[in-house]
Write a structure and sequence with these properties.
Order of helices and strands: HHEEEEHEHEEEEEHHHHHHHH
Strand content: 15-25%
Helix content: 40-55%
CATH topology of the largest domain: Rhopdopsin 7-helix transmembrane proteins
Membrane topology: Multi-pass membrane protein
Number of domains: 2
Oligomer: single chain
Structural class: alpha+beta
Main location: membrane
Pfam families: GOST_TM
InterPro entries: GOST_TM (IPR053937), GPR107/GPR108-like (IPR009637)
Shape: elongated
CATH architecture of the largest domain: Up-down Bundle
Subcellular location: Membrane
Length: 487
């Protein structure tokens, strides 16, 4: 007899890999998980279908049903082919099981006999040891709650083509990241498909646990953009005769940001109410956000080049800047649509990396071009002794440098967070990662608004043709000589 600790040790490799893949995709799966002809995949000695993974908070003790947290199974049916049914010669039962467990209890799933390869399904050797029933999922009771994990079963009898899982509701009494897998062990069920749905609910609504704080966050960001808009538009209306083209671009970015934050808030509110992600609202929230980010990057780039402040046009660079902005928009739009609107389980991890890389490369190119342009602009402003504009650009450069340093630091933290939390055990704080980028971009926008706010002195920062040589055509060395020669 082998020790129980050896039989019920850590996860099997197959189930661990499946759990990881499932957790990577759970974020956009929605709280109403529909299964329409879903097929099982072979993992080790089991055939497995990931049914969902979400962070769930414990039910709130209350007589009001809104405080309940649960996972509900509705009309779950398993359909096998006639060939599979006819190939089963005996009249015994063939079972499909559903197992629900909290991520901390993952080590209660799987086992091995005599130190062999770990398995999800009970093997003949383990059955002989009396620790499980052959053909069933290997599991033991959780140390936290003896009633967990929850295992449900549907049986095919004889030549039946359909097996139905009893409709029932599993109440959640412990906060955690919960996982659902449908598993069968009998190879004769090859080609089995699943129909039906499960409903996952938190005490405050249908939003998955890690997404729930984002509804409050986007509501707060909407208010922040309204306050920024009130400041900016009041200045804009007061000094409209002094407004520069750059300030019109800033107005557009603020307006897009207000729409984006409001749409995200309503998207999460609708999701929380119905359990189904509203595709239309999500699409427009993504699009407004992508347009805003593309315009903001182009705006920072052209400001760095001195457009509207020390030069009237970008000359031959206009088409290149617009091309870069359009390319960034397309790459970012595709990535965000896949993350938020598309069905995540339809795209592999490698494909997602393939979508992230173009956005990262374009961002790096923007940063390189921006700081190169800023260096040239600062040198020329200093050479021409444009003190007011030089001071403005130094503040702008410092703000951008701080933003880049903070961004690099946060990227490192994000990589550390994800690499050390492969099972999403820190799901309650995961919302901070996307929220940070919104706060950082908003803070940078506030700095730009403070530096370029419409005022009675706005035009002194604008480009003016004083009859001297063109700013771009004037070499730096000659410019310094020209200035020294002035009285």
């Amino acid at each position: 007899m082998i020790p129980m600790a050896e039989v019920h040790g850590s996860y099997s490799v197959a189930l661990a890999m499946l759990l990881l893949v499932g957790l990577l995709f759970h974020f956009a799966a929605a709280s109403v998980h529909d299964y329409a002809g879903e097929k099982f995949a072979a993992k080790g000695n089991a055939f497995v279908l990931h049914g969902g993974s979400e962070g769930l908070y414990a039910s709130v003790p209350s007589s009001n049903a809104t405080g309940e947290s649960f996972i509900r199974f509705e009309r779950i049916t398993f359909i096998r082919s006639e060939e599979a049914a006819s190939s089963k010669k005996d009249t015994g039962k063939v079972m499909v099981q559903a197992i629900v467990f909290e991520v901390e209890d993952r080590e209660t799933i799987g086992g091995s006999a005599y130190g062999g390869q770990r398995a999800v399904c009970c093997t003949p050797d383990l059955a002989k040891l009396g620790v499980c029933t052959e053909g069933m999922i290997i599991h033991r009771a959780s140390a936290q709650d003896l009633d967990w994990p929850k295992v449900l079963a549907a049986s095919f009898k004889g030549s039946d083509l359909i097996a139905t899982l009893p409709s029932q509701t599993i109440p959640i009494s412990r906060t955690g990241m919960y996982n659902l897998y449908f598993i069968y062990c009998d190879p004769s069920l090859d080609g089995l498909v699943t129909e039906g749905k499960t409903i996952w609910k938190n005490p405050t609504g249908y939003l998955p646990g890690r997404m729930a704080p984002l509804m409050i966050f986007y509501g707060s960001m909407s208010l922040a953009f309204v306050l920024l808009g009130i400041f900016w538009f009041s200045q804009y209306a007061k000094f409209w005769r002094e407004v520069m083209p750059l300030q019109n671009c800033i107005t557009l970015v603020i307006s897009l940001g207000m729409f984006e934050m409001a749409l995200w808030y309503f998207e999460y509110a609708e999701f929380n109410e119905t359990g189904i992600r509203p595709g239309g609202i999500t699409f427009w929230a993504v699009t407004f956000g992508t347009v805003k980010r593309a315009i903001a990057r182009v705006l920072i780039l052209v400001v760095s080049m001195g457009y509207g402040v020390v030069r009237p046009t970008l000359g031959g660079l206009t088409s290149r800047v617009m091309m870069l902005g359009a390319t960034f928009f397309l790459a970012s739009e595709v990535l965000e649509l896949v993350k938020n609107v598309g069905v995540v389980s339809d795209i592999s991890g490698k494909a997602r990396v393939f979508l992230v890389l173009p956005v990262a490369i374009l961002d790096a190119f923007f940063i390189l071009w921006i700081f190169t342009s800023l260096s040239i602009t600062l040198d020329k402003l200093q050479a021409r002794r444009m003190t007011a504009k030089l001071e403005l650009y130094r503040k702008f450069t410092n703000a951008l440098a701080v933003a880049v340093v903070v961004s690099v630091g946060w990227v490192c933290y994000e990589l550390y967070f994800k690499s050390t939390d492969i099972y999403s055990e820190r799901w309650q704080s995961a919302w901070i990662i996307p929220a940070f980028w919104q706060v950082l971009s908003f803070s940078l926008l506030c700095v730009i608004c403070a530096l370029w706010a419409p005022s009675q002195n706005s035009m002194r920062y604008a480009y003016s043709d004083d009859g001297s040589e063109d700013f771009d055509s004037l070499p730096l060395k000659n410019s310094q000589t020209h200035i020294k020669g002035q009285p």
